[in-house]
Amino acid sequence: MVPFHLAIPVDDLHAARTFYVDVLGAGVGRTNDRWIDFNIEGHQVTAHLVADMPSSIATNAVDAHDVPVRHFGLVLSWDRWQSMAQALEARGTTFLIKPHVRFAGEVGEQATLFLTDPAGNAIELKSFRDPERLFATR
């Protein structure tokens, strides 16, 4: 796996650090007073401090849910997704889209959930029972 790098805006670095470390289990890399590098499952996500966050989130209908168009996420193993979903539910997480299986019985069948960080960045955690189906079209 080659790690990706993603930079996201946040309006409170302390809240971002708490969320990504305590809720998602990220490690912390380089930091300064304007940004923090997080290690999320081996990927580098950098939270950059901004004065204002966008106030609305555009959505598209996907399998009867309003999926935030601007989001990022992780594809986890089935067991890892199940344990993350259970841990998030146990801590009383407010979900944009609650943990569920979408496209049941179809090529793209997947477990998914959506939540936001404290700055409103939408995050999807998903999994496929068969990882080979990630890009399958039929």
Commentary on this structure:
The protein is α+β, with helices and mostly antiparallel strands and 138 residues long. The chain has helices spanning 13-23, 78-90; strands at residues 5-10, 27-31, 35-40, 43-49, 59-62, 65-68, 71-76, 97-102, 110-116, 122-127. A 4-stranded mixed β-sheet has the order 1-4-3-2, covered by helices on one side. Strand 8 and strand 9 (110-116) form a beta hairpin.
Q: Give the oligomeric state of the chains in this entry, treating copies of one chain as homo and distinct chains as hetero.
A: single chain
Radius of gyration in whole Å, from Cα?
15 Å
Q: How many angstroms does the end-to-end distance come to?
A: 24 Å
What structural class should be given to the helix and strand makeup? alpha+beta
Arithmetic mean pLDDT:
93
Low-confidence stretches: none
Let me know the number of strands. 10
Sheet of most strands: 4 strands, mixed
Along the chain, the helix and strand elements come as EHEEEEEEHEEE
Strand content: 35-45%
Tell me the number of helical segments per DSSP (H or I, 4 or more residues long): 2
Shape: globular
Q: Which percent range fits the helix content?
A: 10-25%
Strand order of the largest sheet: 1-4-3-2
List the helices and strands and how they pair.
Layout: E1 5-10, H1 13-23, E2 27-31, E3 35-40, E4 43-49, E5 59-62, E6 65-68, E7 71-76, H2 78-90, E8 97-102, E9 110-116, E10 122-127
Parallel strand pairs: 1-4, 7-10
Antiparallel strand pairs: 2-3, 3-4, 5-6, 8-9, 9-10
